[in-house]
C-alpha cells in the first residue's frame, strides 16, 4: 500500500514538473511570437518590380524585416487618391502599428487617417504635413543629382542633355535645377531640355519622351521617373544615360553611367525600433549624403574619364559642408539673379521651388 502511494506521489510530482516545463516553454514561445507580431505596412505608388522608386522602398522593407524580425505587409500600384484611405484602414485591421506611405499624392489622405487612428504611427514620404502621430520624411536627393550633373556635363558632345520628368512639383523641379547646376559647373555651354510625362510609372511613355529628346539632338538622357525606359531609349540610340532611384546598370549596360539612388533601410529600422520601444515622436526628416539616405551609384565604364576625380572632389565638399548646391549667385531661366551671391536657399524655399535655373529649357505649368 505504501509503495502504491509513493508511486502515485512520484507520478503526480513528475506530471506537475512536465506541465510546468511545458508551460514555461509555451510562455517563451508566446513572448518570442509577440516580438514578431509587430506589424508594419508599406504603400507603393508603382509595382515593386519597377526597378526604381517602389523597388527602392521595397528593398528598405526587406532590410527592415531582416534587421528587426518584424512582420510587414505591402500594397503595390496604389493610386494617389482616396483609395489609399481604404488601403491604410485594411492594414490597420490586419494589425499594422506603423504605416509608411511612399508617394507625395498620399499626403492629405494620410493626414486624415492619422487623426482617425491615433494609436498607429504614420510616416509619409516626400510631403510636408505632420500630426501628433504622422511624420514626413525625405532625402536631399538634390545632392547626388548635382554630382550626376557633373558626369553628364563632362560626357555630352552636343551640349544637349535630355531630362524625362514626371510632374511639375517642387521635388522634381528641385532635382532638375540641382542636376543643371552640376552640369553647368563643369560645362557652362550645356543645356538641359525637360520633357514632362505626367506619370510616375509608365515605361512606354517614359521611353517615348526620351526618344523625342534624342531626336532633338540630346546625347545624354537623365530622368525623374520610375523605370529604366529612358535609359533603354538612350542605349538603342547609341547615347548615354543617368538613371534614378537604384543602380540600373543591368537594364542598359551600354548607356548607363551612374544614378542618384536611395537607401531607405536604415531610416525604416530606426523609426520602427523607436515605435516598438515607445520612443517614437512625430517629426520632419530630410537627410542627405552625410546621413547616407542618398548617394551617387558607382560610375560605370561609360562615364567620362575625368568624372571620377571631379565627382569625388565635389562630393567631399558637400560632405564637409563647403558646398551647398543652392548657394548664390543663381540665375533663373530669364537670366535674372534670384539667389544673391553668398546666400543659401532655406529648406522651406527649396521645398516650395517653382522656378527653373538658367540652362534649363522647359516650362512649368502652374
TrEMBL record:
Q: Which domain of life is it from?
A: Bacteria
- ABC transporter substrate-binding protein PnrA-like domain residues are 39-321
ATP-binding: is it a keyword of this entry? Answer: no
Question: Pfam family example for this protein?
Answer: Bmp
Q: Which PROSITE patterns match?
A: PROKAR_LIPOPROTEIN
User: What is the annotated signal peptide range for this record?
Assistant: 1-26
InterPro entries the record matches: ABC-Purine-Binding (IPR052910), PnrA-like (IPR003760)
Record keyword Iron-sulfur present: no
Task: Name a single GO cellular component.
Answer: plasma membrane
The protein's UniProt keywords, in alphabetical order, are:
Signal
The entry's protein name is Nucleoside-binding protein
